[in-house]
Amino acid sequence: MEISGAKLVIKLLEQQRIDIVCGIPGGSNLPIYDALRDSSIKHILARHEQGAGFMAQGMARTTGKAAVCMGTSGPGVTNLLTAIADARLDSIPVVAITGQVTSTLIGTDAFQEVDTYGLTIPITKHNFLVQSAEDLLEIIPEAFRLAESGRPGPVVVDIPKDVQKEIIEIAEISTAPAQKAEIAAGDSESIEKAVEMINKSRRPIIYAGGGCVAADASADLLKFARRNSIPVVTTLMGLGVFPHGDPNYLGMLGMHGSRSTNMVMEEADLIIALGVRFDDRAVGKATEFCKHADILHVDIDRSEIGKIKSSNLSINGDVGQVLHELVGKVEASIRIGWSARIASIRMMYPDVRPDEQDIFHPLNLIRVMGETLPDDAIITTDVGQHQMWVAQGYPFRKPRTLLTSGGLGTMGFGLPNAIGAALAKPDKKVVCVSGDGSILMNIQELATLAEQHLNVKVLIMNNNRLGLVRQQQALFFEERFFASSFESNPDFASIARGFGIPSFDLGEQENPELFLRKVLGQDGPCVINIPINFENKVFPMVPPECANREMIGG
Amino acid sequence: MCRHNFVIDLLVRNHAGVMSQITGLFSRRNFNLEGIVCGPVGDGGESRMILTVAEDSKLEQIMLQLEKLYDVLEVKQVQNYPLTDVFGRL
Q1: For A301, which residue in chain B has the nearest alpha carbon?
Q2: Secondary structure (DSSP) of B11-76
Q3: Are A330 and A230 in contact (CB under 8 A)?
Q4: Contact flag A126-B60 (C-beta cutoff 8 Å)
Q5: Tens digits of per-residue pLDDT, A308-346?
Q6: Does the beta-carbon distance from A303 to B65 stay under 8 Å?
Q7: Of B21, B64, B71, the CB nearest to A303
Q8: What's the pTM?
Q9: How large is the ipTM?
Q10: What is the least distance, in Å, from the CA of B72 to any CA of chain A?
Q11: Once rounded to an integer, what is the mean pLDDT over residues A150-158?
């Protein structure tokens, strides 16, 4: 049959079982949009390409499947870059399909021409500049395979307008689902050694990260930890992969982890690092991290092993496969001495909680959220103090229930990711916790939210400040505050109403706690402005470039 | 005089962007790249790239990151490669 490049792109997306794409049309991707018009794929019109990129991330982060965003050439692409870079650092499978100016115009500084290929090399897992419509047959499926296989990541497919319009003759496209890439198992000899190492250890700790989420390894992680009575700490990206409230769970480690968690790690004799990359926010000063412990590192990405911290034993493979092996092989153990020691460390360093009466303290607001929302509610955050309070205070019990920008730390992440999550899981409750600084960075997507009428609540913790910046200025710059407070701050409740979304100011409610519980229980979108005290700080905190035991506050 | 202690021999897919992929990796990760020789091999679908890097504690990481690139088909570390003489005469 005869088919245009643009129609072929859409057919190949349908073949990949894509049912939603987010994007914005423009001059160079109009043929693709024309083909999309005739497809069953639902298009979500974002209001900024960065929003479209983060909506795709929201879908990918909640489902684990690659999601698609689209933009036109030039500014469409440069606007997508932040969302793509963010996906790269958090290993999120996203396929960005971008329009490019006609091939003969490439290199002439044509209208809306930008070097998409060059710009995206350092922030993608891989990128393609498509040379002919026929190449699409290979490149589109390959883009999905690359995005989802191994360590996931974003892939850009840049398609010149003439390639979109080119008519080619092809055989019927198969509608069979794409073949899944093989999953890399760890080598059995290393696994045997690992089992021995774990059985012999006296004070082991599991340090679990985003890799366990990506590998859907939650169930095996739970079995493994319980069987051998190994306490578990998670990174920010790992929150939810091990259930909060489980006796083996010690919480989040690192810069804003609990004091007891970081102190327990100091006493470990074996760190079982699963799908983690020893990021500076998690391990503090790397040379000081768990100095007395052996390290067993399991990761799908060979280049992560030994990158920051050398290990005594490493297994290069899918952490889900490796955990599955380990569950069956490690001996059952109860580790009475170690659990008693951990209990006493936790008594020595109790979590500092605010007075429960202080309902406008962020940790209390988050506690109320945790008590009100079901276990499978999806929480997205922006970046700053509110993000760390959510990480510290919300009882995540299931994987893929926290969507947060861990690696890149992108303000503006929360709202479009919440929209993406609600698109992928329309039956779930989705709550975006944001700040007054972050929400302004993608507030235009309230229009998309209103249009789609999704089940998303937006809570804006409003301290009229860039709170985490102010906190650093207070702690490390002798309170020389600068450029961290807003002289003018908009009335978010009015703004949201202007977008057509029900909205409230929690400060004006007679019984704020009850009101918050009530709103969280309702369906549909809602924006709530919450005035909080700007003096609140996120504690404890490991000062940058310090060892994790050198926490201050809390 | 420059020392070219380490030579990396790459087999890559030959297309317009491949050189940027390789050099981009070095600049992105702050690796030290001293010299490059590159040319197509076989029917032109693939190219060989010879890279020289100064003595560098990051060599293992460089090799591992190169192996991850989609366009890189083969990575070898070689010693006493005749091309180092070419670099020496530059």
Answers
A1: B68
A2: EEE-STTHHHHHHHHHHHTT----EEEEEEETTTTEEEEEEEE-S-TTHHHHHHHHHH-TTEEEEE
A3: no
A4: no
A5: 999 999 999 999 999 999 999 999 999 999 999 999 999
A6: yes
A7: B64
A8: 0.96
A9: 0.91
A10: 11
A11: 98
